[in-house]
Amino acid sequence: MDPQLRRRFASTAFIIGFFLLWEALCWLFNVSDIVLPKPSQIIVTLVERMPALWPHTIQTLYTTLIGFALGIVIGVALGVIVGSSRLAYDVAYPLLIGFATIPKVAVVPIFVLWFGAGAVPAVLTAMIMSIFPIVVNVATGLATTEPELEDVMRALHASKLDILWNVGLPRTMPYFFASLKVAVTLAFVGTVISETVASNRGIGNVMMIASSNFDVPLVFAGLLILAVMGVALYAVFSFLEGRITGWAHRKDDFAMG
Amino acid sequence: MTAPDSAATTVKDGAHADFFVELEGVTLTYGRDERQVNALGMTNLRLKQGDFVALVGPSGCGKSTILKLVTGLLTASTGYVYVAGREVGAEPVRVGMAFQNPTMLPWLTVRDNVMLPLKIVPPFRENYRAKRKTEFRDRADALLKEVGLDQFGDKHPWQLSGGMLQRASLCRSLVHEPQLLMLDEPFGALDQFTREELWAIMQELWMKMRPTVLLVTHDLKEAGYLANRICVMRARPGQIIDDAEVPFARPRTIEMSYTPSFVSMTQRLRELIVTARPAKEAA
Lengths: 257, 283
Prior knowledge:
With 257 residues, chain A is mostly helical.
């Protein structure tokens, strides 16, 4: 068996084994539904309640993607500004770190205060959750560009914009995509936090209501939906990363069009 | 045409037009006050159009500084630098540059790396989008073929050896048909055989395209093989202390570098460099 297939087989087996063990332990110790439902039960709940869960799933996905998209736009813009000048880097970095360390749950009430409950605070929370890894990575990528690469351009009398476009940004792509994989999962966290606190729609809200009704299988069904969406988006960006920044990993099968 | 007034102004005309590059009383100092470093002492240097001049000397003698002054990356503290009869920077002169490090952009294919100057330098950049898949591509491929890399245009830089990258780097420095070619120890990091092979390629390309070349090198044999003239520099302050014609006919060969007259020429240069060294280092 070739090694790659073997790795895949092993990781799939491990995932299936995890759920089987969970199921077995629940049977063995007779764990109550209210504490920890069995995986089989979660699946049944998920299928039965899907018609009701589906709009909430779409709502959460939609909110997350809008917030994430805004986060990318603002994050890249800030990252380029901070990363392309030594002065901006020195001045803005401490403030940036300060903002990044604020627990984002704490700002949700402020957004609710400003914009009311609903989708807007959720989008904004998803956005600020995803901004920081992007800004930090883009800025770091730009700031650490090898001067030799810039010299090539300066010898040709290239403008600052030419250098940014042809050297700075391409060289930053691996950092950018690494940050996207982190940021997209954080965006989900942001959306769900906000939905839990202040919304009447979305998976976060469903889970909140379900847990106050002691409908634990539904809570876990919600978790499963979030996990699937998170993993799916991670996979999308991981795939894009491989396509666009394969040069950084020196993949032999990498070809850019 | 009237002769220029004897009171020299910064505007150059016919009187100096036969020199493509001219350094007139140029000095360069870094820093200020007591921490001032004199990188380049009073320097005069003239290159005819299509000439090939090598700068040799110990490290820190300001060889690379001269390259940077001529390309306008540095500004002289005193004196004037003229390129194509105008003060440097006044008129865009197409410059090609190759460094000791091949500095290929790792995300581009070798061909796209070679085409990079066409994307940046006028007048090519205006047509880059239209001609990138046709004329410009063919031009890059022709150059790659010239240096023996015709199979490697679609590869990425990490898939090539150091010598191959340096060949590609030469292609990149020549693709936009530069009037001025600046070579900053481009063969310095290569093994002897690759280096000699690249000298031959370089000579061939120069004889075909005839750019004005300024080559910085530590290797006296390389200077003798490639250059029409060799300028010897000494350090602290950097200064040209000797300027000699290389009398050998072209195309030159490696065998030529073992003839007695070639050997005695490199020996003379070597002694010049050694004796010009500051006393404390010579000890």
